[in-house]
Design a protein that fits this description.
The protein is α/β, with parallel strands linked by helices. The protein has ten helices and four strands; from the N terminus they run ααβαβααααβαβαα. It has a four-stranded parallel beta sheet with strand order 1-2-3-4, with helices on both faces.
Length: 227
């Protein structure tokens, strides 16, 4: 059994948390059945139906944030409140998003973290010296990138800009003030398209803000969902 992420443990003290692996991530299967945003959204809707959850607070990060927004746009009754942590989904020509798919292993920490030398960054992006562990890491990375590329490559624009106006759920956007992968300027794109939305910047955090600034990240979500 995989260990629970510490920030999910914290949120679990106040809320009942479901954190399903998306097909193609972790030990999950079924990636071959997910071709586009519609397939992904239907996967989540069917999962919630199976679990008997007609409506819920939905939280998503990065690609997960993009899909959370799509879930709320496709069915305006599904999300009570929406938390999008540095979500993908839009493209601004003047501020392009770096090509994560072309990044070398030793470049990833710099793209994802405010401090690429921090323990959290080193733990997540360390390159194993053991050949078997390195092989396993490459296989896992290829599997994840194959899934993510369906939504993010060559650019993460799959039509959310046409549907975001449908989102009715109160929405909190959380952004690391030093996000180098999806720069904070993208927050304005979301607030301009989602009516009932606001932004909270997390200081000294990059794209992986839940690891770098777990306390402020969890506190912001807790306050928003309970408010």
């Amino acid at each position: 059994m995989n260990p629970v992420e510490p920030f999910l443990e914290e949120l679990g003290k106040d809320f009942k948390v479901y954190a399903p692996h998306f097909p193609g991530y972790g030990e999950s299967t079924g990636n071959e059945h997910i071709d586009d945003v519609t397939d992904a959204v239907l996967f989540y809707h069917e999962l919630m139906d199976e679990l008997g959850i007609p409506t819920a607070n939905i939280v998503g990060h990065s690609m997960g944030g993009m899909l959370a927004a799509e879930i709320a746009a496709f069915d305006v009754h599904r999300a009570k409140k929406l938390v999008l942590a540095c979500p993908a989904g839009f493209w601004i020509d003047e501020t392009p998003i770096p090509d994560f798919f072309a990044a070398q292993l030793d470049e990833i920490a710099g793209l994802l973290f405010h401090d690429p030398k921090s323990p959290a960054a080193q733990m997540m992006t360390a390159i194993p010296s053991d050949f078997k562990a390195l092989e396993t890491m490459y296989v896992e990375r290829v599997k994840r990138l194959a899934t993510a590329s369906k939504f993010l490559w060559p650019i993460p624009d799959r039509g959310l800009k046409k549907r975001a106006y449908r989102i009715k759920a109160p929405t909190l956007l959380l952004w690391g003030d030093d996000d180098k992968l999806i720069p904070p300027v993208y927050a304005k794109e979301f607030t301009s398209r989602i009516k009932n939305s606001k932004v909270e910047m997390i200081k000294d955090a990059g794209h992986m803000l839940m690891y770098e600034q777990q306390g402020p990240f969890v506190a912001a979500i807790r306050k928003f969902l309970k408010g």
